[in-house]
Amino acid sequence: MDNSTRRHFDAFTNQIAKLNGIPDGTKKFTVEPTIEQKLEDKIRESAGFLSDINSVTVTEAKGAKLGLDIGSPVSSTQNTNDADRTTKDPSTLDEREYECTQTNFDTHIGYKKLDQWAKFPDFQTRITNLITKQQARDRIMIGFNGTSRADTSDLVANPLLQDVNIGWLQHIRTNAPEHHMTGLKVGDHADADFKNIDAAVMALADELLDEWYRDDTDLVAIMGRQLLSDKFIGLVDSNDAPTERNALETIITNKSVGGLKSARVPFFPPRAVLVTRLDNLGIYTQAGTRRRHIKDKPERDRIEDYQSVNQSYVVEDYGLTAFAENILVPDGNNGWE
Length: 337
Known about the structure:
This protein is of the alpha+beta class. It has nine helices and 14 strands. Strand 8 (256-257) and strand 9 (260-263) form a beta hairpin. Helix 2 (33-45) packs across helix 5 (123-145). It is globular and about 75 Å long.
């Protein structure tokens, strides 16, 4: 590490120490609450999807889910000569509990890269943004691919962080099989379940969502990239007239599928569809659990940044989910793939 880089690095750790009210930023510490919240906000801001879902800070490691603002209907009638009127909780509460477990976000940056960054006035910001952005990406990756939590995760065997925490889709598979389908055939073959993805999405919404959610105007269809490509590629290849191009741009911008606005999210399974509201997906973060330790590691010519926080991936209401995966499409040889 160059001497100028050393000065930048020392200023970086000193600033972190000052913000967290500690004497030494290179010793393990618990992140100060206001800084913890700012970090959470910055992580969410670095990935638009995380700003759309239900990101919540909770006090307890385990407890009842917070639920949605509005759940099932509450209107009723009652002949009070026969019985008392009964109340209903207007929010959506599920008996299943959330449980926050520790996730480590441990990174390192080599001296050579630091020496390059030391030439820029935003040295500290570059380090912070790099780490923050990857933490945001990892959260989305875990949410859509996590199936378990191993005592010690294995990135080689599970490159999509499948063993770091249990994500939203796995919660649906396990806890709400009545809202989950697999192996649907979508195409123009005689044995197809649906002729196109629009029909499949409409059927998912009509058949798997609880009835009072089916006309919710905030519903979206989160689409795997291969299914979106199958829907839109024909239009891209064949429509050349200006008016058709304009219409195509509107379709791609709105990405309407089965009458619903579609969402394209990183790391979502390529042959899957999830119909829900984005605020039905949540990440609960336990307050006071963010730990950090920044250390210089001359033995490896790098600095290391150890961070951890307790989190849980939550589906607020399973009745507001319709999930289909491993969708099959024609293989070009009268079969399916």
